[in-house]
Amino acid sequence: MAAKRTVIATSARALGAALTLGVGAALVAGAVLIPLPKYSVSVPSVEVAPTPVPQSLVCAGSLLQLSNGAGADATAASGVGTPKRSSGADESGVDIEQAPLAAPDNSSVGDATAPTAVTAPSADPGVLIAAAQSVAVAQEDISGLAATNCAEAQADTWLVGGATTVGRTSFVLLSNPTEVTADVDMTFFAENGRLDAPGSTGITVPAKSQRVFSLAGFAPNAKYPAVHIVSTGGYVAASLQQTVIRGLEPGGIELTGPTAAPSTDLVFAGVKITGTSAIAERLSADGYADLQAALRVYVPGDADATITVSVASESSGSADGSYTLSAPGGVVSELPLKDLPDGSYSVSLESTQPIVAAARTSVLASGAIDFAWNQAAAPLKADVLVPIAPGPSPRIHIANTGDDEADVTLRTAAGNEVKIAVPAGGTKGLDAQPNTVYTASMSSAVSISVGYSGDGQLSGYTVAAPSESAAPIVVYP
Length: 477
Hints:
Helices cover 8% and strands 48% of the residues. The protein has two helices and 35 strands. The longest helix has 32 residues, at 2-33.
């Protein structure tokens, strides 16, 4: 009987446990099946559309030389040539003001030669303005054409160009059009990598003024310099001027603006190849090697870059082949542009590593030499203004690196209109009217530049999109 009671008790406990588990499972199932109340809390936010900030552009002013024009005081910069400007807006009847900036580093500056802030203070919010300048000089020791657009101040800028070897003089120009002081750090790179450049950080550029620095003071004897400029407080419009003397012969001038930030895809619109036969005869002479058309490339990282160079001819409008180059990481190098017949081209770079780059070309005609630095042009999607400064044979160049044909419409303030179809991967050009500002509208993204070419004169500049400083922002309390 005792054994029987034990079995019964054990069975009862097992049954109780089973019943307990069953009840628990039922409760869990019920909890799953019965919908629970849901609560959610959204983060309060509001989209704020700030009042568009009126555009403010900076024209660099006259060219500079290290003397007072009479050969004396070779440590001071003085102005050379008087800028000629063209400006306009995307609406009629807009009054554009031009106000000179202070230029304490230019010993001969005047209102006509000073760096200039270009604004339209009474225009409606969102109105776009544009301006460009050119300076032509023909003197015994400095000769050529330098044309550049008048640019918005930026916080981060790359300049690629110039040299500080024998016969090459280069300046970095920092113009601050804002109402507050700009604190600027400059970092220099060349063929041996990053340069130790004491005094290149913590530079103060006062409000409404321009500072000028000799590149040789930071990068002496550099064949292939590149400069990275970062500004806090006020922003600066940075540009780089180079003059060349080959022996006793003036070898050209150029004033160039920013190139595109490090990227794996870059495009240069309107690369002008001219006078190839005359240049070929001079290349072997001492001091003339940099007449060769070339790409200057800086690879910011340690890894080497493999670069596919694609060329499109403006005469045919279509792609003209591609080839591959290698650029070592961490240094600046110059790579030859493929031998091309005289003409205008777009040059596209596709790199395995982010790079910054510029393209140099030269002209030798009627015994005069000049050169141009072509900067990478960012693709433009929305309407932009294309200012045409005075200069010889101005031409608008349009490059389309997309997969579809791009329809581009160019309109003047007088209502004249031209439509251009640019094939996928191709490029087209249009002769432009000096002292005119065009509005460009495009069906898909293209890159645009303006070029000038004459006997012993060569220059150009890229067209940049206006800043997005007035775009809507989302605010979270």
